């Protein structure tokens, strides 16, 4: 008879470990999904905020009007991505001869973007004049301010753009009245 001890796990030990792991995962999975959604929303807000800042700084650097518009063909759905470009012909769409500064891909599924601006004429857009101020697409002197709201499930973040074109991010659940409604 051999007195050597065998190394490894028995089938019963392995089944117990797998059962404990399955219970632990079933408890942790909803929290993991919520964390992933929260990070996707945070990344989308950061990307859009960065594009706003890029449009503003490029308008100042180039001494020309720079636009930020939704990338979809109808120019209304921000969740489909966006484009920062120099709008030489004033049509609010990047054309063949116009310089595209940056293009962003569509957002993660489930992220909705709404906008409310002081001037809701035409398609959704942000324009910055050569002084870095937000303006209308037809006049560099007419101020245009408002809010872009991004939501995923119950979570919501807002990017508020003031009359001077400066943007800030806020969380309505945390910031209360200072991050009030979508109205400009």
From TrEMBL:
GO (cellular component) term, any one: plasma membrane
Predominant localisation class: membrane
Domain General secretion pathway GspH: 45-165
Superkingdom as given in the UniProt entry: Bacteria
PROSITE patterns referenced in this protein's UniProt entry, alphabetically: PROKAR_NTER_METHYL
One Pfam family recorded for the sequence: N_methyl
Subcellular location: Cell inner membrane
Membrane topology: Single-pass membrane protein
InterPro entries linked: N_methyl_site (IPR012902), Pilin-like (IPR045584), T2SS_GspH (IPR022346)
Keywords, comma-separated and alphabetical: Cell inner membrane, Cell membrane, Membrane, Methylation, Transmembrane, Transmembrane helix
Any single biological process term in GO: protein secretion by the type II secretion system
Family as reported in the entry's similarity comment: Belongs to the GSP H family.
Protein name as annotated: Type II secretion system protein H
Taxonomic path: Bacteria, Pseudomonadati, Pseudomonadota, Betaproteobacteria, Burkholderiales
């Amino acid at each position: 008879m051999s007195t050597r001890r065998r190394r490894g796990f028995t089938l019963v030990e392995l089944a117990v470990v797998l059962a404990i792991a399955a219970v632990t995962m079933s408890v942790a999975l909803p929290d993991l999904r919520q964390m992933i959604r929260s990070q996707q929303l945070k990344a989308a807000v950061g990307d859009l905020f960065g594009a706003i800042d890029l449009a503003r700084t490029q308008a100042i650097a180039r001494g020309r009007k720079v636009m930020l518009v939704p990338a979809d063909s109808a120019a209304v759905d921000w969740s489909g991505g966006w484009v920062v470009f120099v709008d030489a012909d004033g049509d609010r769409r990047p054309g063949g001869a116009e310089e595209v500064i940056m293009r962003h891909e569509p957002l993660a599924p489930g992220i909705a973007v709404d906008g409310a601006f002081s001037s809701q004429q035409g398609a959704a857009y942000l324009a910055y004049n050569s002084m870095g101020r937000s303006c209308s697409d037809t006049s560099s002197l007419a101020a245009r301010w408002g809010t872009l709201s991004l939501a995923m499930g119950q979570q919501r973040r807002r990017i508020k753009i003031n009359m001077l074109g400066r943007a800030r991010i806020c969380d309505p659940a945390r910031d209360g009245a200072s991050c009030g409604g979508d109205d400009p």
